[in-house]
Amino acid sequence: HWLFDNDPQGRCIMYFTHINPGQEESTICAASKCDHVICLSQDGVNQLRDLGVTVPLSVIPSPIQVGFSPRKRNVLIVGTEQPNGRKHSWGLLDLAWSGMNLDPFNFIIVGEGWNEVVAKLRNLGVSVEHHQDILTSELISLYRRADVLLVTGFREGGPIPVLEALASGVPVISPRYGYAAEFPDDITYYTSTESLASALAALAK
Q: How far apart are CA 43 and CA 194, in angstroms?
């Protein structure tokens, strides 16, 4: 409120964030005493224009705090690895070794047989949660956290997690087989490490 109590010398710049209810007139008065108003957002510009403010207005967004980054995307994988490797558990290692940046992702793996892959992923700095024996209620909670279900297996008769994910409103990334082949409008298909990387990268945007 110093603008009301002082006669500023030189050019006057006002920094505007928002209008509190009932402060419209004082905002107009303050802006009229300025040579230029810097707004936090385009919405602020629109608010002032709607009030009839005619002085020059600019938008300079507040800088994001150094080190801030959006939350990781939770990629859920549900299924016990088989002795013959049918679940393709090393597919995640292929992603890491291909040079893909996996920092935007947190992989949530449910099932046995993943210990070695999980250990190697963590050694590579990949964020991984591994759950083996969990209750149905806990699995439901994981679906609620998931941004996507990733099916890694080479060949499946199902798998049931595809139906669980679709019933939960969770997007699915999968090879085109089993249940996944029956829902082409709801599933993103991949055929290689490269196409899987592209599907995950789209999720992180």
A: 41
Structure tokens at 71: 């939350």
Query: What is residue 76's three-state secondary structure?
Result: strand
Q: Is 171 helix (H, G, I), strand (E, B) or coil?
A: coil
Beta bridge partners of 187: 172
State both tokens at 200: 């995950």
Single pTM value for the model: 0.69
DSSP β-bridge partners for residue 105:
73
Beta strands in the chain (DSSP E): 13-16, 36-39, 57-59, 73-78, 105-110, 127-131, 148-150, 172-174, 187-189
Q: Is residue 82 classed as helix, strand or coil in its secondary structure?
A: coil
Buried-state track 105-141, b at ≥16 Cβ within 10 A, e below 16: bbbbbbbebbeebbebbeeeebbbebeeeeeeeebee
CA distance 122 to 131: 15
pLDDT digits (tens, 9 = 90+) for 8-48: 567 889 999 888 889 999 999 999 889 999 998 999 999 99
Q: Tokens for 150?
A: 């990733």
Choose among 17, 121, 114: nearest CA to 61: 17
